[in-house]
């Protein structure tokens, strides 16, 4: 599981993502899939970059914030330590690891859109075992899929 953040047009958003993977070794590429129902997807459509964050199991509160709330109703960044990264991306400072990727392609996959990213900036911070899908299955989605 990871948290993906997007910034565009003065708007900032983020969501918990379960569909993400490295998709090329040379050149290095990574793909994240955002639900069309999410506020983050609407911001990402106009973004140049996305930030992808790995979080640890002890950061479940962060997973609940980004997975169980909707940016249509709350500012998920309120009270969080974050900074501006490459291309204006919102980087969560407490993530276990993160990267900012320039968006190369957007691919419609049905109810999700895949964003193929070229990693251009990265870092690490918080230690601990990473949050997995099995750790997050009880989080009720802020924008449930029908």
UniProtKB/TrEMBL annotation:
Residues 1-139 form the Flavin reductase like domain. GO terms for molecular function: FMN binding; riboflavin reductase (NADPH) activity. Keywords: Oxidoreductase. This is Flavin reductase. It comes from Streptomyces actinomycinicus.
């Amino acid at each position: 599981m990871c948290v993906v953040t997007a910034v565009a047009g003065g708007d900032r958003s983020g969501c918990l993502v379960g569909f993400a993977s490295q998709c090329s070794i040379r050149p290095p590429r990574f793909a994240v899939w955002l639900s069309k129902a999410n506020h983050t997807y609407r911001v990402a459509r106009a973004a140049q970059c996305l930030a992808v964050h790995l979080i640890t199991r002890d950061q479940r509160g962060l997973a609940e914030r980004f997975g169980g709330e909707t940016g249509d109703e709350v500012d998920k960044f309120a009270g969080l330590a974050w900074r501006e990264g490459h291309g204006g991306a919102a980087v969560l400072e407490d993530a276990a690891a993160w990267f900012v990727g320039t968006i190369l392609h957007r691919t419609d996959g049905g109810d999700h859109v895949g964003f193929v990213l070229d990693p251009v900036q990265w870092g690490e911070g918080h230690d601990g075992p990473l949050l997995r899908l099995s750790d997050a299955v009880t989080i009720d989605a802020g924008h449930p899929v029908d």
